[in-house]
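User: Run a structure prediction on this.
Assistant: Running it now.
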Amino acid sequence: MNSSTPTAAFALAGFIDRLVEQHGFTRINAAGIDGFAVAEGDSVVLLTYDPVRVPETLDVVVVLPEVIKAHAGRIRCAVLDPEESQLAKARFGITRWPAMVFQRAGQYVGAIEGMRDWSEFVDEVAAMLARPAGRAPSIGIPVASATASGCH
């Protein structure tokens, strides 16, 4: 184990506590995403990851509350610990950490994966607030017959 692992994990836990205590984020687990998102209006769920493997995780945890403030309180926010984020990843087709999943009244709107420059981050969140809800791009397995050559 890398000697920075406990320090980075401790730092992430502290930053998540700060999101909850100082910025009004709700700490949920993967099973609680639907219950959190079903309320009226826009919501974002921050999926975190091991900051030793993906240092951007700490950057997003620090910057996201400021980006949210730039949108005048329009967004309810929640955060998942890394273990719970792993459980939610496939459901939303997440391929890069950290990720922010946006929903409106319980319906999927989109996701922002990874860290961005400030203006790009603010613009992408604004785009999520303007985008219509749709279907989550969960990771699926394509089904095809090895013997069929067309429709019958």
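Residues 148-152 have pLDDT under 50 and may be disordered.
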